[in-house]
Structures
1.
Amino acid sequence: MRDEAPSCDVSFAVACYDALPYLDAAIESALSQAGVSVEVLVVEDHGSDASLAHAQAWQARDPRVRVFRTPANGGPGAARNIAIDEMRGRWFAVLDSDDLLAPQRSRLLIDVADAHGADLIADDLVLFGEGIEEHRFLPPELAAEGGRWIDPEFYFASTIMLGTEPNLGFLKPMIRKSALDTSGVRYDPGLRIGEDDALIVRLLLAGLSYYLMPEPGYRYRKHGASISHRLSLANAEKMLRSEHLLRADLAATGLAGRAYRRRLGSIERAVAFTHSVEAMKARKPLAALAPLLANPRAALLYALPLKARIGRILGRGQ
């Protein structure tokens, strides 16, 4: 881990797995941030396309781009941990390899964070992509109230898995590097879905302050390739195990109240639903019924379009 003084304002972590169709646009978007100095840390995660060589070509012509590779395919959390260890900026920012940034985004977020003394700062997302109508992510009532602090209770209430409201776990906050280092929190490399959410929860519990502003500055691309990594049963169970560890840590804090119990219950329902779906795909109807009998509310998920439901918890990557 680096301990020298920061040499730029923002370090963008780009976890890269078969990202070639969109990688140029993502890198250009980060390098074009106005009013800040930046570096782009591309961490290639053993994909099957030419992303590594392409990123290395960027590195050869622009010193702000630095390229790394995971020891083996480890998922986005493992890739981002490498970026954290290698970063030289005052702020850590995630940029998914198929997403884009508004040019003024970083300057605006840093100014708001500094004005409020926030350790984490996030903004609204703009969802876009082929075949969908461009729209904002946050509900209008949340955007209309202006900036607000996000405490653990509010975060738990706003991260209901497969819920009817937008899940704040999808936001892309920037994190002050000094606070990140003091917390000692890093990504759980065992999670390939929900890794950003797990990091944010741990940072909040470590005492970091989180401010949300309503302006949309992060452009979140939805496309066919972005849903190639289905919520497998193995990944669903890893999420639940991670949440059970969190519940144990919360036991002595007084934060495991109603909002958290709803969050945990939503994950348990999602896992039961995934068990049932996997059994149905294997043409084992009795096996598909068993998890629904154990968690009857999971059966309600069948009432909604399966593709849309699963799409809310898809990880885009490894």
2.
Amino acid sequence: MAFAQELLLFHFHSTDHVGLEGQYHLLLQQVVMVCLFSTLLSIWLPKSFMLCYIRSLGVIFQGLWLIVTGFMLWTPDFAPKGCSMKKGHFGRNVIKCDDHESLHRGKALVNILFSWFFIGMMVFGVVCYLVVNKVYGVSKVMEDDEEDLTWEMEDRQRFLHRNRVLPTDLEEL
């Protein structure tokens, strides 16, 4: 419910859905949709670690993108060339661009910024996953005929299923 409400909030938050503010909100809505869909899929697949991990990365990405949006839309020095802060509807300050070319340049810069943050989040997610897998799921020692020890990699699904914190476990705390 929270992700659906957040999606509706950002859909109706923008007064005109155009310009730089509309582009920032459109991209934020896509991140919220990923969180919403991963939550809905986790109802169908409640033991899926990857869905929970994607949702967690999505929530982190939402927070980062909200911070970036705040800085980029409310700091006049970060306005793209040809755009500046002006009075908009209902006396609100908004970033308005002087011409069509400046608006397209500004939207392109927003898309590039979003792409860089997206790539950064994917790298962060993969590195965190590999570190956690290295620390907690590396290997176990098994004896074979009491003579030689062999190292065997744990099965990933078994590791993820065994170490997952379920919502019911959190309620008991």
